[in-house]
Amino acid sequence: MSAGFFYSYHLGWTRLDAATLLGDLEAEGLRPGHPLTGRTVLVSLDLPSSGARSPVTREQLLSVSGLQRLQEVGFRLWVDEGSDLLVRIRRARSGVVAVEFSVGELPPLVRERAVGAIRRTVGRASVLCIGFVLDRDGATAGTDWDGVVIDGSAHLDAWPDAVAVREEIAARHPQLTVMDSVAISPWKVFGSAVPSL
């Protein structure tokens, strides 16, 4: 599978934000509970035990996803009984939290359904979302996306399908400031996938 991803960046992250995001994702058909068993699992992101799974309740998932005591948390979201994706919620910098969806693990049609659901969910939370990045193939996985979206400073060696940033970040970034964009409030959106967002 490819390393495709959808990253969104949020300010003021709390347990309530995690609950709102999860509820919106569930309304779009992306669920933390397995469709047949109903089990929700946390996924270890630490190198020694990377990928290890621990069953949790919904309340436990919401509690740890608020990042009050942790720097990051990983869990699976199910699109259907055979397709799931890894979600990582982590503290970035400057009070920003990154929510990373590994959509490259999904078959193409399922991936497009998941990408659409994630994008609509991020749009509903746009007051707190300062930007997002969509790269279906993962070609830009090595880019410092925190530096692009949060600081407006990191260099782009390759372009993702779409990158959305606040207007002041676009004006500060040396490459974005000279590129064509589409205004989708509260962001300026750049890239080849903009018409489909």
Provide a descriptive summary of the structure in words.
The structure is a single chain. The chain is an alpha+beta fold. The chain has a domain at 5-139: TATA-Binding Protein, CATH 3.30.310. The protein has five helices and ten strands. It has helices spanning 15-27, 58-65, 108-124, 145-151, 167-172; strands at 5-11, 40-43, 53-56, 72-80, 83-91, 96-101, 129-135, 162-166, 182-184, 187-190. α1 crosses α2.
Major β-sheet strand ordering: 4-5-6-1-7-8-10-9
User: Mean pLDDT, as a whole number?
Assistant: 90
Strand content: 25-35%
Helix content: 25-40%
* SSE class: alpha+beta
Separate helix tally:
5
N-C termini distance = 23 Å
Counting copies of identical and different chains, the oligomeric state is: single chain
Low-confidence stretches: none
According to DSSP, the number of beta strands is 10
CATH fold category name of the domain at 5-139:
TATA-Binding Protein
Q: What is the CATH domain class of the domain at 5-139?
A: Alpha Beta
The gist of it:
With 197 residues, the chain is of the alpha+beta class.
Write the layout of secondary structure elements.
Blueprint: E1 5-11, H1 15-27, E2 40-43, E3 53-56, H2 58-65, E4 72-80, E5 83-91, E6 96-101, H3 108-124, E7 129-135, H4 145-151, E8 162-166, H5 167-172, E9 182-184, E10 187-190
Antiparallel strand pairs: 1-6, 1-7, 2-3, 4-5, 5-6, 7-8, 8-10, 9-10
